[in-house]
Amino acid sequence: MTSPKRALDDQDYAAFAWARYRRILKWMGLASAIAGLAAIAILAAMTDELHWLVALGAFVGVFLTVLMAAALMGLVFLSSGTGHDENAAQVSDADQRGWRDR
């Protein structure tokens, strides 16, 4: 039998889950920076002269896009891993049953 998932209501587990989320985001920040530098390298290889504003814009755009995707995906994993998805589904089912009874 599987043990029930622990929600973020448990302070110790919440601290552990958020610390894990922040650790993942730090690594993904590094991966985002590498992706931004790779984008600049590709642009520099494709053009004769790369203006610094174009390079900065490309870096910031790629960096923030990858970091935002990582943050949102991390929140999905955090929500799923702590049982909040199941709790929301139960509340939603109860609301729908209540709506049909009206």
Task: Describe what you observe in this structure.
The chain is mainly α. The chain has three helices and no strands. Helix 1 runs antiparallel to helix 2. The longest helix is centred in the first third of the chain and has 36 residues. The protein is elongated. The model has no long low-confidence stretch (mean pLDDT 83).
Question: SSE layout and pairings?
Answer:
Layout: H1 11-46, H2 52-81, H3 84-101
Descriptors:
mainly alpha, 3 helices, 82% helix, 0% strand
Give the N-to-C terminal Cα separation: 38 Å
**Which blocks of ≥5 consecutive residues have pLDDT under 50?**
none
What class, by secondary structure content? mainly alpha
What value does the average pLDDT take? 83
Shape: elongated
Main sheet record: none
Query: How many strand elements?
Result: 0
Q: Specify Rg, calculated over alpha carbons.
A: 21 Å
Summarize the structure.
The protein has 102 residues and is mainly alpha-helical.
